[in-house]
Every structure is written in C-alpha cells, then in structure tokens.
Amino acid sequence: MYNGWVTHTCSCPPDWSKFFKAACDQHRQSILELINAKGSLNVSELVESLDLSQPTISHHLKIMVEAGLLSMTKEGKESHYTIQTEKIQQCCSGFMDTFAPQSASK
User: What is the Cα–Cα distance from 1 to 65, expressed in whole angstroms?
Assistant: First the structure.
C-alpha cells in the first residue's frame, strides 16, 4: 500500500520539492548561470549583474544553499557562493533512478 512517502538513497534534501522548487525559480536560475560562468561570486558581484536588491539576492542564495544547489564560504566579511555540482548530479540522478528508472539507465 502506498503511504505517500518516497525513500531515496541520494544526499538530496529530505524531500524532492525543496531541491526542485529552489532550482525552478527564474531569478535563482539567473544566479546559477552567473555563478556557473564565473565559478564563484559574492552578493555584491551578483547585485552588480542582476536587477535585484541585495536583500532579495541574499534571500535567494539562502534558499539555494539550504536546497543544496550552492555552497557558501566566508572570506573575511564576504560570503562567496559556488555551485555544488556533485550534489546537483546526485539529486538529479537520484530523482531519475526513483521516478524514471528505465530512462536513467539508457
């Protein structure tokens, strides 16, 4: 009998929705694209490139860190953000293994 709970073995957030909700937001995708292009950015660098306020960008970064899309390292007073490529790959392949196992093995 289906109980509504899906168990998975990858190191994603406890539920898939947190990861994918963080990834599907248009502003967060723009942030991911910029960080992907540069390798690592801080909030000030993101503010310069995006038409968003510093508090809004900080809010999005917090959500992405909590979801496992980004990692944050402190350098003095600045926080630098990088993409967690391995975690994203694990989550996406874990999702495919769970919900589309035939497609994942092709």
Answer: 35
